[in-house]
């Protein structure tokens, strides 16, 4: 059965998922006194899981879609000691009066000042991102410094920094988890570059904080390599993301139980320097709303801070814009975005989130842990844990072993989980009296509209179509799911199909033979029928094959960061050889280019790639 691409009844994906669509959207536990908005829209984009068994909206936040800056050879390059620091987060928001790293509940505060405490022994620089250094105006020669690994492990202080760990909470797998916070990430402060852009630097794995709970505050090399590489790979794909400046080993070992099966082992330790314009999350607001009383004013302070520094256009709105949502009868104006800046802000957060999730669906990225503490208010991909890109197309795919029982965070559910998380964010703002019921419902309505606009536009471009064709795309996804077709390689090869209705039927599948493997007569007929319809659609577009191929190859990557590629680099790095990490970084910087000699990085996964610890991972890191 094929589900519709947009369901007015708000039902989600496949009914065969063990957790029903409605149960995904209904909070399992009440969020204290917060009333969750009731109006939720749902998305049905993919074929039924059962069947597998046999833009009218304004352009969204170009600053975050296109984070890479144009190289300016005349711009002065700085030494680390010359970076232009600012510390607005610490300066403008309430902090913890204590500065020790003893695990505890931190009340009435957005952060705790805490210094890195990681121990190192001959730390080494594994890799660095030239484009992130460019963002910071940092001279690349700084990576040749003998003390560079000491500095970015956190063992030596970085001049001008003012380290702190952020306090936040979150819903984890649908359950309110209370205080979480930066348990091993320590923010060094904010760099203001020559373009007046604000970038936070953060060391992940630099030691214990008050938010570490029972953990050690450290990180292992395997997970740090994955985060470093995927941060930069996603940026090169054009997907909003936190960035990664560099990765260093600590020279010490860290004990981890990768599969939580009682078999811990020692692994090499590492620290990755993450970079983002802000690391504020939905949970940064939730924790204070959950504590109510005087902490509700902190929600407002945090909202004001975010608007002032990251959404200044909202602060400076100078004209009224009447917006509406569908009540079921007719559109009625309910929200004037200039009458409540918090409503305007929440709408933009929702739309950025929707745009982000749509971009994930376009490249086949599955985050794996979409808890509310892993949702950025800037619409960035944040916290790379057990993520995975689709190999064989499977809407129920989850790369997270912890998620296997219910597959809450599987690929097909991501649009709905995005909405669920936006509902929690809206409820938080309601608790602080920053939104009313109508405004909260409107926020979710905007998420739904934005997601469908973006998703349809992405799929239209991926197929090189003149306009969105729901039936054609639904049938394609159904065929891909039935035959477990490689998601990335299929769309790359699809650009080789010619818009010629006169092609003999026996030759229609020739351009796709590398991905249509081991299909019988019945399935070959199904694919032939689809390609016929596709060719007819292309023939009426008036676009040349060459022009369409170029446009499709610009949105369908040849290279993605498949888990087995990461594992190959990890295996070498754990033996002290970092060349594969660096080579993989370079390949992923140009995912849409052919890159002569790099074809092996576009190959289908080998058989060993499907073993536990490669195709699927735990949250152990």
TrEMBL record:
Recorded GO CC terms: chloroplast thylakoid
Top-level taxon of the source organism: Eukaryota
Annotated keywords: ATP-binding, Magnesium, Metal-binding, Nucleotide-binding, Nucleotidyltransferase, Transferase
Co-factor(s): Mg(2+)
GO MF annotations, alphabetized: AMPylase activity; ATP binding; metal ion binding
Pfam name, any one: SelO
Family: Belongs to the SELO family.
HAMAP family: SelO
Protein name: Selenoprotein O
Naturally occurring in which organism (per UniProt): Opuntia streptacantha
